């Protein structure tokens, strides 16, 4: 037993395996009241049942702040306007929710006068860094307890045995030992047979948001998204609040098998891991947004924005949401969106997202200039001088070689 004592400990509680067994473990190894905090970021849960389970497992008090709207408006939509994709691929569904969850944990720790925050992240994962970076940014005086870095439990199988020993009910089994993280943007699946990149997976075993391709409709569906300064505001002409729009697109995209990523990623902690992500709505939003930017932003702005998007995604993935660098990039991204308004139509079919046309009052495309026909602005003869200058260095290099 540690000599360190805490009067109150705020536990980041999900009701899953790791956080469920954390309650009896904390009661054994630390003195004080455990305050379970399950932050509602849009996951589908019976919140009354989650509270009952937390209290029955030994928690002194339970909080459940409902912040899905804030997650979409303040975290997800800014990432979409940046076209942020970690390693050019992953849409950051888990990473975007962590700073908001940490923010709520710190707020409740202040409200309750707690001196420590506990999380159930493993020592191999990214989330331990994301939570602790956010806590350090918001209140570095708060201590952090990470049971996976202290206890004798070495695996999820051990955790299941411990849960049975302590009489803590959990959904996971040794046959289906997947670790899942859900919010309004996505759901991730890790663990079990997913860990082996050589294994082909039966996705129907764990899909939540998405219909397997074999079961998707045989008829394509066309949708139209309306953007105002980079933010999606309407679907098929109907104005929608951000969270409602994303949830609706999740249902539509999921129905057509869109937005599944089976991927081996490089974790911050220094190892590769395989995960399966379902992100249908955000996949549609980023697809449409990128197309609209191609119509409304200059070549130089797009090049700079694409470079910063990779840096921005790396910062978010690595838990740096509250950093100076992140805030600076966000300022650029917001400024870049002044002209990104218009409509984008997409055809959805069997996992595919196909363009069906787009319009914008700020379009930089000019049919007269870009077509092969004659126009008043561009003279084909001018290209001769341009080519002569542009190829000059190549000619000199060849002559000197």
UniProtKB/TrEMBL annotation:
Keywords: Amino-acid biosynthesis, Arginine biosynthesis, ATP-binding, Cytoplasm, Ligase, Nucleotide-binding. It comes from the Bacteria. Residues 178-396 form the Arginosuccinate synthase C-terminal domain. ATP binds at residues 12-20, 120. The keyword Amino-acid biosynthesis applies. Its main location: cytoplasm. Its EC number is 6.3.4.5. Residues 8-169 form the Arginosuccinate synthase-like N-terminal domain. It is found in: Cytoplasm. L-aspartate binds at residues 122, 126-127. L-citrulline binds at residues 90, 126, 130, 179, 188, 265, 277. It is an enzyme of class 6 (ligase). It catalyses: L-citrulline + L-aspartate + ATP = 2-(N(omega)-L-arginino)succinate + AMP + diphosphate + H(+). GO terms for molecular function: argininosuccinate synthase activity. Pathway: Amino-acid biosynthesis; L-arginine biosynthesis; L-arginine from L-ornithine and carbamoyl phosphate: step 2/3. HAMAP family: Arg_succ_synth_type1. Belongs to the argininosuccinate synthase family. Type 1 subfamily. Homotetramer. This is Argininosuccinate synthase. The gene is argG.
């Amino acid at each position: 037993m540690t000599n360190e004592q805490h009067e109150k400990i705020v536990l980041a509680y999900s009701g899953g395996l790791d956080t469920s067994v954390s309650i009896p473990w904390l009661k054994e190894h630390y003195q004080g009241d455990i305050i379970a905090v399950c932050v509602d970021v849009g996951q589908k849960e019976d919140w009354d049942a989650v509270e009952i389970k937390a209290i029955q497992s030994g928690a002194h008090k339970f909080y459940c702040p409902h912040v899905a709207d804030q997650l979409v408006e303040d975290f997800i939509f800014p990432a979409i306007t940046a076209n942020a994709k970690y390693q050019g691929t992953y849409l950051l569904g888990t990473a975007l929710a962590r700073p908001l969850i940490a923010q709520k944990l710190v707020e409740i720790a202040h409200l309750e006068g707690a001196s420590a925050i506990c999380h159930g992240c493993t020592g191999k994962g990214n989330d331990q860094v994301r939570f602790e970076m956010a806590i350090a940014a918001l209140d570095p005086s708060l201590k952090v307890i990470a049971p996976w870095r202290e206890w004798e439990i070495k695996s999820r199988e051990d955790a299941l045995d411990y849960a049975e020993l302590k009489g803590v009910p959990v959904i996971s089994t040794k046959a289906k030992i997947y670790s899942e993280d859900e919010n309004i943007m996505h759901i991730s699946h890790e663990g079990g047979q997913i860990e082996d990149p050589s294994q082909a997976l039966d996705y129907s075993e764990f899909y939540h948001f998405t219909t397997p391709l074999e079961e998707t409709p045989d008829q394509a569906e066309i949708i139209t998204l309306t953007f105002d300064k980079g933010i999606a505001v309407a679907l098929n002409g109907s104005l929608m609040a951000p969270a409602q729009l994303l949830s609706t697109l999740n249902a539509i995209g999921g129905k057509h098998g869109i937005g599944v990523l089976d991927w081996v990623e490089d974790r911050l902690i220094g190892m590769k891991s395989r995960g399966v992500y379902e992100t249908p709505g955000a996949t549609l939003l980023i697809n449409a947004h990128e197309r609209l930017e191609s119509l409304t932003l200059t070549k130089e702005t797009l090049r700079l924005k694409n470079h910063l998007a990779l840096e921005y995604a790396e910062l978010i993935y690595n838990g740096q949401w509250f950093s100076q660098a992140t805030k600076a990039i966000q300022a650029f991204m917001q400024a870049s969106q002044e002209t990104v308004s218009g409509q984008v139509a997409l055809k959805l079919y069997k996992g595919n997202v196909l363009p069906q046309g787009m319009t914008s009052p700020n379009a930089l495309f000019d049919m007269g200039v870009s077509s092969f026909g004659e126009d008043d602005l561009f003279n084909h003869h001018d290209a001769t001088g341009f080519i002569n200058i542009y190829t000059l260095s190549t000619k000199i290099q060849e002559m000197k070689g």
